[in-house]
Amino acid sequence: MWWKILTDYFFSFNLAADCNAVLKALQPIFQEQGMTETVHNWEDHGYLVTYIKKNGSFANLRIHPHGLVLVDLQSYNDDMKGRQEVDQLLNKVEERMKELFHGNIKRVKRLPAILRGGVIDRYWPTADGRLVEYDIDEVVYDEDSPFQNIKILHSKQFGNILILSGDVNLAESDLAYTQAIMGSGKEDYTGKEVLILGGGDGGILYEIVKLKPKMVTMVEISFDKVASSNIDQMVIDGCKKHMRKTCGDVLDNLKGECYQVLIEDCIPVLKRYAKEGRMFDYVINDLTAVPISTSPEEDSTWEFLRLILDLSMKVLKQDGKYFTQGNCINLTDALTLYEEQLSRLYCPVEFSKETVCVPSYMELYP
Amino acid sequence: MWWKILTDYFFSFNLAADCNAVLKALQPIFQEQGMTETVHNWEDHGYLVTYIKKNGSFANLRIHPHGLVLVDLQSYNDDMKGRQEVDQLLNKVEERMKELFHGNIKRVKRLPAILRGGVIDRYWPTADGRLVEYDIDEVVYDEDSPFQNIKILHSKQFGNILILSGDVNLAESDLAYTQAIMGSGKEDYTGKEVLILGGGDGGILYEIVKLKPKMVTMVEISFDKVASSNIDQMVIDGCKKHMRKTCGDVLDNLKGECYQVLIEDCIPVLKRYAKEGRMFDYVINDLTAVPISTSPEEDSTWEFLRLILDLSMKVLKQDGKYFTQGNCINLTDALTLYEEQLSRLYCPVEFSKETVCVPSYMELYP
Description:
The structure is a homodimer.
Chain A: E1 2-11, H1 16-32, E2 36-41, E3 47-52, E4 58-64, E5 68-75, H2 80-100, E6 105-110, E7 114-116, E8 136-144, E9 149-155, E10 159-164, E11 167-171, H3 175-181, E12 193-198, H4 203-209, E13 215-219, H5 233-242, H6 244-247, E14 259-262, H7 266-276, E15 280-286, H8 300-314, E16 316-324, H9 332-343, E17 356-358, E18 363-365
Helix pairs in contact in A: 1-2, 7-8
């Protein structure tokens, strides 16, 4: 596997002459390694020096005139020896820089190596676009359904993680998410009629069935209206095999004593229920997160969300409750918009929200 | 601020001829940008092509013969326009690659930009060495005490975060940590004698004082025996100003009705208490995490930990309880060693453990 180490040295110098001094000080360290040097001098933008090794490794040394020196190494060594050599090289660079600037260095930052091109991809950005490395050690399931790519990856600390089209959906550690969307333990589901929209990982279904409801109906929509949602048969197939801590045995059959799973488009199902006057005590929408887009007029996903909301209200008993997830707490615009959508419903609703720590999301979710 | 975008294209090709085809296909895209090209051909290790722009930006195109193409861009544009240009460039590369391989690409991965050399450093690796980007938007406090560097950084979702010598210590969102180390709400502190070792952020002190204890004594050791610990006056100064959600007003004075804070080395204090026969119902050790090192014989930190443990047991009432934190759940070797240390104490102890999700740690902590 190829990896890349990024190291930053942050100084206070301001003269082109200093750029040259840095170059002169560091050159011998790379040359000792038998690396071939190519120097580019921008004059007003400092230096880029490329060092190339015979084994295919290379280093970029970027010296900026305002006092920033960046060293990037790219190597293919999956042995400890190669890693140690790189550490030694960087230690030497650090030492030399401290000598040169008499310890007057504002910041030295060495980032963990970024592993690239391996079988296992450990980098799954958060909903607000931050880089996060997971402790993935195994690809458990990796299939393309007609709607999305479905991955189940094993994390040492979170257990198996369901990733749909690149978005972290749920890990076996995330009972907190399931509990939150069920009302944080404050609801009594005994003898109740419950409708779950989405929920293909089976987590909500499994937890509610334990609470002796009258009937739980889970509708797995089966079209790709929503970019990323846990909604297809192949999600169920993957989860019932590999997310058993989340779903138990509840997905082994699509029908149980007090539950049924319909692999159907939820829109016509909701319309039919509304027409028949079939009413629920709880509707739990686990179809998708609040869309990240903040231009609802242009975005059909918002329209779709509003449609689902409207239809859900029509099948909800007078004193019924509707639960859904929000999105990453940092996407405040999207969350505010979602609250605005609530005020546009055909009937007035009251709502409250709650923030929860979902371990595998590595961010807070309202 | 300088930033770097890493993009990986992962193909299935195996011939040197294919490397050349990739090079030929992608060259025009970079040349159109007015970039100067330098090609290095390893023959058996593929190509490294460096593209340099007049404004100081540059790109590395690394083509590996086993079917991996890496594109790294380094730029200084903090405007949206620069970012959009880079996105467009990468879109073109992706398009061209899909054409060339008729869509037969195993993986395309574009990582979020890594921001470097800025005032704000957003990258704080986890205890087990994984790269994590926090949503830091402000440096609130940044001082060097005689013992360590103390940073308090503001995160949009976690509030202010205390970082000691580069290790994330506690965020204002992390009441869960404080509650866990206090016994997860199962303990009755009313009228009790409590000793806190460390705890300079004031979180534990603040929470216990609310529970009407008889007396809480917090000892802040004042030497640098432990590499990273929340133990000095400057930590207290920073926290009482900037971590008020954690510590309330409890650090405004070092003495209150039912508590006192001693800025002293805890070892002689513990020895004195042991000699005087001063006994506590609870000892809470928040001095430091379990050391990461797994060679306790060589490591004086383990010895130090054992000394603290031994002395703590001496000032603990017969039915008293000792609470401490563990470390990241992935550092299983270190945790096992810690449990072994417990069995080496001068008196036999019973212990239990619990895993908790600490929001800002982005990992599970036993």
